[in-house]
Amino acid sequence: MILYVDDILMASNDLETMKDIGDASYVLGVKIYGNRSKRVLGLSQKMYAKNVLERLKMHNLKSISTPLEKNHRHSF
């Protein structure tokens, strides 16, 4: 179980001591997204990067993608 409270995520396997308030969608400016059925979890800092570029007056620069090997799987 994951619990989100004021930009803090806590995890526990003891459901009696924690309250489930649903899935987190943003933590510390990082968007959390996923698909449970496909076992996909992703993190995005797109809005944070956009805000930094706007603050630095660099938001009109041309962007490029950072390549990643197709079907790459991280192992932890």
Structural notes for this entry:
Strand 3 and strand 4 form a beta hairpin. With 76 residues, the protein is an alpha+beta fold. It has a three-stranded antiparallel β-sheet. Strands 1-2 form a two-stranded antiparallel ribbon. The chain has one helix at 46-55, and strands at 2-5, 8-11, 26-27, 30-35, 40-44. The longest helix is centred in the middle third of the chain and has 10 residues, at 46-55. The mean pLDDT is 78. It has a domain at 23-59. 13% of the residues lie in helices and 28% in strands.
Q: Level of helix content? A: 10-25%
Distance between the termini: 19 Å
* Topology pattern, helix = H, strand = E: EEEEEH
Tell me the Rg in angstroms. Answer: 17 Å
Structural class: alpha+beta
Mean pLDDT: 78
Reading side by side through the largest sheet, how are the strands ordered? Answer: 3-4-5
Number of strands: 5
Number of helices: 1
Percentage of residues in strands: 25-35%
Taking the sheet with the most strands, its summary is: 3 strands, antiparallel
What is the 3D shape?
A: flat
- pLDDT under 50 segments (min length 5)? none
What order do the helices and strands come in, and which of them pair?
Blueprint: E1 2-5, E2 8-11, E3 26-27, E4 30-35, E5 40-44, H1 46-55
Antiparallel strand pairs: 1-2, 3-4, 4-5
TL;DR of this structure?
By secondary structure, the protein is of the alpha+beta class. It contains one helix and five strands. The chain has a domain of 37 residues.
Please name the defining characteristics of this protein.
two-stranded antiparallel ribbon; three-stranded antiparallel β-sheet; 13% helix; 76 residues; alpha+beta
